[in-house]
Amino acid sequence: MLDERKAAILTAVIEQYIRTAQPVGSGAIAQDVRVSSATVRSELAVLEAEGYLSQPHTSAGRIPTEKGYRHFVDHLDRASLPAPEGRRVVDFFGQLRGEIEQIMRDTAGLLANLTDYAAVVVDGSEEAVDVRSVQVVGLSDRVAVLVAVLANGQVVKHTIESDYDIDEESLDEANRRLQVSLEGRPLNKPNPAPMPSDPRAVPTGGEKLALAAHVLLTSGANDTERVYVEGASRVVTSFEAVESVGRVLTILEQQLVVVSLLTNILDRGLSVAIGSETGVEPLADCSLVVSPYSIGGEHAGSIAVLGPTRMNYAQAMSTVAAVSRQLSTRLSEG
Q: Is beta strand 286-295 parallel, antiparallel or unpaired with respect to 272-274?
């Protein structure tokens, strides 16, 4: 543990480094901590020896290490968003409408705009809520659309193209079977698929249509999560090395890696992963601020912002927390 003065000096160094991205010297923070420059130099040397700071070269000031950032984050006050940003988040979700894909994409865009970092939303929400209603509607002789309304108001749609004519009798039979197998149940725990009543008989058009619709709705419900990334281009300005930017952008393009990364961070009980704590080597110079969101009290997905290790942690943490709460409320109310 650091004593009060060392902690204050470390905080001053990190806050200035976040603002300027330049090594911080003793003179730049002596006034902030109200001690002499000589005392600050002495304490900086101790903080460096203990691994909280490093010095790029002998004549330079200090910059934070991962250990320094971790101490800083662990001792940050969990402040609320400033009133203007807080109102913007509340107003955004109060007016948010549309299908779940658009809601998630818009949420990622809001996060990116508020923080000026890359924003990620992982959506596993479909499997967390029950199916309220499901219906197959004919569009033409051989094309139908499957529409499922979830208990939180989300609408899931799939187009079904058939190699046989779809008549009203087939539609009626398919809808009866789908109501039995899906309505009132979460997508990842449906009743058995609506198979033909006589397995030796040739399936009717309605039976085949019901089975196709059932597979479209439930396949992947247990293991497929959609990832929405906005503001990835903002990462470009955060790093001097072009190769670092390329590696980070490559990670953001790999959905399975992103889902695994955020899940792993939350499973370790972290809300902020700094540098090597992410467990992903290309993100060694990055930090992630992560929060889960829920539907009706059940875990449904996660949101995060990704930026350089010198990110504005206080702002990022308060923004992610506020957006997570509002997204949970919006999806729970439908």
A: antiparallel
